[in-house]
Amino acid sequence: MTTATIVPGAERALKNHVSLGQTVRNSLSMAYRGLLKIKRTPEQLVDVTLQPILFTLMFTYIFGGAIAGDALSYLPFFLPGILVQTVITTSVVTGVQLREDMDKGVFDRFRSLPIARVAPLAGALLADTVRYGIATTLTFVTGYLMGFRPEAGFGGVLAASVVVIVAAWALSWIFAFFGVIARSAGSVQGISFLVLFPLTFLSNAYVPADTMPDWLQWFVGINPVSHLVTAARGLTMGTDVTGDLFATLLGAAIVVAVFAPLTVRAYMRKA
Amino acid sequence: MNLTDSTWAIEADGLVKTFGANRAVDGVDLRVAAGTVYGVLGPNGAGKTTTISMLATLLRPDAGTGRIFGHDVVKEPQIVRQLIGVTGQYASVDETLSATENLVLFSRLLGLGRAEAKRKAAELLEEFGLTDAAKRPLKQFSGGMRRRLDLAASLIAQPPLIFLDEPTTGLDPRTRAQMWDTIRRLVSSGSTVLLTTQYLDEADQLADRIAVIDRGRVAAEGTADELKASVGSSSLQLRLAEPRDLGDAQAAIERVLGVRATASPEAGRLTAPMQDADRVTELLITLREAGIHLTELSVQKPTLDEVFLTLTGHGVESDDSDDDASAEPQLEGSRA
Ligand SMILES: Nc1ncnc2c1ncn2[C@@H]1O[C@H](COP(=O)(O)OP(=O)(O)OP(=O)(O)O)[C@@H](O)[C@H]1O
Ligand SMILES: [Mg+2]
Description:
Chain A is mostly helical. Chain A contains ten helices and no strands.
């Protein structure tokens, strides 16, 4: 053995808690692992590459004429909507992949290492923001090629992208929770879409809410996804979005505050 | 910290883990001295992995306590994790990454800097003969290479206690011998090793002390020599032509060899521990004189099955032959 003799167990000075600094470092290392995995299995990026292009093209031409007269005038309204829909759908994959990952032997090793308990989760979720970034970029690029010219320019697009990615990251904690408690990856997908569909379709992402029945308008009004869509729309158009932006970020913070501890606790109980 | 804390690497008292109605671990006591190799020997489903999981903070015991170098596994898990390296029964490395990437990742998680982590990874790969395969994806690794990488990953932090769950199951004889060498080197550098195995000869080769566990309980505990003495250095196996001669044959063996023969689950089969192969001649003459006919006779090194038969009074597979009191071995700490 090239290594020197080992320090006996009884002679080591050790602490039973993990510092915040170590938690951040461990999470970043785990995020690095997530990025390596994306690099090694690029076929897993199909959903964040093809879906944004397909959805943007498809829905613009299907709904555009009926709702706004023609596809091009529908784009400024619709593109932020489809962006939110696409990126949030992508965050479901986080839960599914987490489930698959946790079933692998390497998680046993993570659990036996003296690292922050939350790191494998936080790292996985952090790495996935890269996926959201890809989906966001491709949606805007597709929109641009179709003639989308946002009034607020590149700065507005960038701001909208950041808000959408932050919101998707917050929501991914919900799907991560399902990922941790579910028995199989398939069931994670099932439950997640049950949450996802009402959230994204019962919003103002596709059509303005004013033609909907009152009770539905009420739900659309309180749905955080609507606030997110309105905020993203406003940011690309350069209108004032302070209220919706605040509601979105507050909603995101609440989701994280509720689901991050729930997920971590469930994860630790499994451990 | 007092003196007794530092002498024991592992102290387990009455560990229990139940899965539903199944008491997978049913009151296991272990004492492993620092700087030794301890073998946990048992058949499939005996509770070896479950015991290790509790001691390695992966599973919470339902009852009992476990201490690693004096630190409680439930109350001070984070300290315990800094003292142990775990190589699980099934590969616990990341299949999607290369060998180097795996080792760098674990090194980084353990607090090594970027350059230091790279150096450590290269050093361990070299030591475990994996340098040529360092960049290849793990999917192309053979079972033996995976096992070695797994062990390498457990050694990054140079932990004073290493758990090896069936380190050589599924390895060819040459790779197994290499693994044995590695384990011996580990111990010479000051580590304590707890390993589980299904093979008596492996425990014999490596372990200073051995616990035989069966159905979640420690059936016997002692040095390899003590265990073997209770089983005999080899075992005599007889198959009788007439199963109803079983009693007479048992009596004859007791008279000539001075040991108790155990009836195996299969009808008409007898197994007896034996120290001296010469005495077989005498026994055969006695049996012929008594008119007991044999269809088969063999002298074998004791297998795990024999150890079990002798120590617990029932075979590895059989669950019904309940004769536990009959073959109680006189070993220190035995609690069958
Ligand atoms: N997570 C679990 N849920 C339910 N039962 C379990 C679980 N883990 C183990 N068991 C059961 O507990 C018993 C002991 O299992 P364990 O894996 O500890 O045995 P083992 O000695 O390691 O066996 P092997 O040599 O096959 O690895 C078995 O009956 C097994 O079916
Ligand atoms: Mg096992």
